[in-house]
Design goal:
- The protein contains five helices and two strands, in the order ββααααα.
- It is mainly α and 186 residues long.
- It has one domain: Hypothetical Protein Ta1238, Chain: A (Up-down Bundle).
- A two-stranded antiparallel ribbon has the order 1-2.
- The longest helix is centred in the C-terminal third of the chain and has 26 residues.
């Protein structure tokens, strides 16, 4: 089997149930999710398997769920069954709560960074926010978009913030507070 098909050489790509231009809002949304997934893979290579076993398990699960999101967005068939489920959001919320309990309370905004892995996770957070914006744009333009994808991405960006802080904390690296920030987390 060849890796290339040449079917996209004229600027079109396939969805489940149709073909669209490669700059279609759906393609932009799930393409940004794919970019996010790549940054997660990069972050995983930067985490010690023993110290971050729980986080690595989270991230692998998230990678699968992001494939579900992309597939759900790419599905334009008349009869659809979506893969992403509300339970995934509930798991993220529990993990966010656990990771937040692990680190010192936050009073001010922090700068993205710290360790290499935390910095990559902050990049994942910002790409996740962009993916969410792309999904919202798609939802505003097209009625048949599963809203759970937007909700999942919203929660996922919070997870990336919490996990980046936990990574720094476990490695004894302090978050750097934004110096002109007032106390915003009370």
């Amino acid at each position: 089997m060849k890796l290339y098909t040449k079917t996209g050489d004229k600027g079109k790509t396939s969805l489940m149930g149709g073909r669209v231009n490669k700059d279609d809002l759906r393609v932009e949304a799930y393409g940004t999710i794919d970019e996010l997934n790549s940054f997660i893979g990069k972050a995983m290579t930067e985490l010690d398997a023993n110290l971050f076993k729980d986080i690595l398990e989270d991230l692998e699960t998230i990678q699968h769920e992001l494939f579900d999101c992309g597939g759900d967005l790419a599905n334009v068939m008349k009869e659809r069954k979506y893969k992403l489920q509300e339970a995934s959001i509930e798991v993220l919320e529990k993990r966010i709560d656990a990771l937040t309990e692990e680190v010192p309370p936050l009073k001010r905004f922090i700068l993205p960074g710290g360790t290499q892995a935390a910095a990559t996770l902050h990049i994942a957070r910002t790409v996740c926010r962009r993916a969410e914006r792309r999904v919202v744009t798609l939802m505003n333009a097209v009625e048949d978009v599963p809203s759970i994808v937007q909700k999942y991405l919203n929660r996922l960006s919070d997870y990336f913030f919490a996990v980046a802080r936990a990574v720094n904390y476990r490695l004894n690296v302090n978050d750097v507070e934004y110096i002109r920030s007032g106390d915003v987390f009370k």
